Amino acid sequence: MADTSKPDAAPEGEDLSGFGRLRSHLRVLYHGQTPAALRFQSFILIVDLAIIAFFIATPILRDDEVFLWIDYSIAAILALDLAARGLASNHPLRWLGQMPVIVDIFILITLLLPTWFFNLGFLRILRLWTLSRSSLVWHNLNKWGLKAYRETIQATINLLVFIFVVSGFIYTAFIDRDAGIEGYVDALYFTVTTMTTTGFGDIVLPGTFGKLTSVVVMIIGISLFVRLAQLVFRPIKVHFPCPQCGLTRHDHDAVHCKACGHLLNIPDEGEG
Q: What is the average pLDDT score of the chain?
């Protein structure tokens, strides 16, 4: 249910009979601010979080008898959501070209063909990344006063997605290969200890490929961790484009733009 498009208004002159009315109604549900639309968006967000929780638990649940039933049910939900979001967009073809949408379509394929794409199932956690790019999500979170923390939250999500994607890859590629990885928790443990350069040495990926994998995990993992630390410890900024020079990040109590000195009129969090 993640959506990266901005709220669309119905195009001028759009045919509101039949199919046109359906598209207009979907736009209101996905992008509107009416009480009914907000309830719908909150419900969609809860369903999305439940789906992501299932993706995280997939390595543990995949041998359960009900796994395929849950898998196909989620595929049906995701297919309906993708179709609805496409109809709600003013430019469906442009919407299809967005990276989060492409990722969601790939996730849908892995859900519909779990046997064929068994080894790529760990990439489903990318759904969390697409969710973090959703305007639908941020419409709700901004009302909770979290607008100033958007970059920090997204950096946290990027780090978590990286950890789970790498853990899934290592679990799939190195289990039962004399690496000491006997289950998903071992893969997760190795990812975190390698990323933080702790390196206890109790789990070592074998061969040249294993060493190269460890190097990539360390380099990218440390970069994401440092990025998150910078966002957490630096002063909180607000996003407000300067009318004079276009600088978008300012101190929350700034009166003048620090780049050009133009007088700013930054609204309080409670305004608008």
A: 80
pTM above 0.85, yes or no: no
Spatial contact of 236 and 148, defined as CB atoms under 8 Å apart = yes
Give residues with Cβ within 8 angstroms of 17, minimum separation 6.
none
pLDDT confidence of residue 215: 92
Counted residue by residue, the chain has a size of: 272
The CATH 1.10.287.70 domain(s) of the chain lie at 147-234
Rounded to whole angstroms, the Cα distance separating 248 from 83 reads 34
Residues 16, 38: Cα–Cα separation, whole Å: 23
Q: What is the mean pLDDT of residues 178-196?
A: 85
Instruction: Tell the CATH topology of 147-234.
Output: Helix Hairpins (1.10.287)
